[in-house]
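Notes to self after the call with IL:
- keep both proteins in one doc
- input above output, always
- annotate only the second one for now

Protein 1:
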Amino acid sequence: EYMGFIIFMDKMEEVKSKIAANEIPEALKILDSEIEKASTPLLFFLRSECHEKLGGYEQALKDINESIKGYTGIEAIKAHEKKADIFWNMGRLGAVSYTHLTLPTIRLVQISVVSVSLKK
């Protein structure tokens, strides 16, 4: 079991480096394969990042919502922040649907809007 965890974490590091290098299709292949084996919040979080970078905002929202279901504590806050980022990007394109928002995300969006307004 411990070796399986080590292998999983090595794969996640590989995925993160592929995302950083903008090798998104390769990262998605690994993530899709891993999700078939075990769907963890981290896998969905990283896959949402990939879909967002490719402009697939609807799939990114589905994945981040799956991620949120499994996270607690600081990880949940980070996932809600990611969700707010996805909505912000969708809003720039005029493609926003607020039906995906949950109360914590709505509050993060409000806080984000206020902080952006104060920076100007």
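Protein 2 (the one to annotate):
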Amino acid sequence: MDDEPDLPWYQVWLTVFSYIIILAFSYGADFWATLTRSSSMFSHRKGYAPIFSDFEAFWTRRVYRRIKDCWDRPVGGVPADWIELNERYTPDYGFTFVSTGKKQRCLNLGSYNYLGFSGVENNPTLEKVQESIKQYGLSMTSSRSEVGTTKIHRDIEIRMSKFLGKEDCIIFGQGFSTNHSTLPAILGKGSLIISDSLNHASIVTGARSSSAKVKVFAHNDPKALEAVVRKAVVQGQPRTHLPWTKILIVVEGIYSMEGEICPLKEIIEIKKKYKCYLWVDEAHSIGALGPDGRGVCDHAGVPPEDVDILMGTFTKSYASVGGYVCGSSDLIAALRQSTYATLYSSSLAPGAAQQVLSSIEIIMGDDGTDMGVKKIASLRENSNFFRNGLIERGFQIMGDKNSPVIPLMLYHPSKIAEFSREALKRNIAVVVVGFPATPLLMSRARFCISAGHTRKDLEWALNEISEIGDKLLLKYGNESYR
């Protein structure tokens, strides 16, 4: 990323100093607890090494525990545009939580309900989902390669390949395992993976699980990518300097923590120039980008045949679970016989599969209505309205126009929890993220916008968030990073 935060030096210093204070007092508390043996948090089985590393355990017990109420909030209703949360409190600074038995109705700005399909009221997919459960049951209780494939599964694969302009498609029961199990299946010894530095953990673990060599390039930087590719082509494999058997570039359509869209046209130019393969993860961009919701290819105006492998998940725009890989018929045929997720993991549950199929039909317009087109347009308009509203109110915002993922920069560690708590007091459910999930200086709140949100709800939320920003001194500037 070329653009750096335009944060005054004193704010940077205060953020770093805040972490120094946190660490100093936390280590001091640990030292005192060790001397007085007043804490059982250090205990592990006698004669055994600790399961967790010292720093992981330290960070959890001294930092995360005290603000744990900002995460893992139990949900008491449907995660649609509004959501019900079960109220709770902690009497012992995060060790335990006690339910009050009450529910709190909040505007949902945290779920990946991009096209608004997760609701129950007036949901056009609900009836068919219920019928599929009656016909096929709750679970296939088998892998796809055994007796876990129904007509619904094949219909999804046929429609997804048609929707994305590919020869064939294979679907999986879990989004994370789509990357994690597929990358090792197509990449072996002598292969090279060139991965964006901010790629999702499923890509990282999938790459590490393969026997391929992995190189990383600076986030969303085509020049850095070309430099890595050129060097890899010239030098070849380590020690032997033999040519790589294959080189795969792996990027994401929308980066989930930054809200940034990949520069697909420039990446494709590099891929063609050096004869590399290209894998695009569309977990957050499928259904959310492009005039027809076909993802980043649709958004960038490039033909899908320029991307060798299109991967995505059904957990966002489709309001279901699972994932898919679209590509050539030869590739998909090989994956059906080689991916662990196909051979050993349970197949996508019939109800979840029908939810995907019904959503695809609506998005493609095969249901005979223009509901899909309207949802895609509504998501784009809502995202840009909310993004512009935050910028106009003085917040620093990351990400690109048209992205439904909108990070608001918090920076200071103390403001991570306070922003979440203040938002909850005002009946707004948000996601906050800090170190070590982000770089030290880049703590943020991440909003996810939905086509189901009304303009009235978003305007109200903007005003409430603006008041929080005034209270917590979060208005660092009037321009976004990009």
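Annotation: The mean pLDDT is 92. The CA atoms of residues 77 and 84 lie 5 Å apart.
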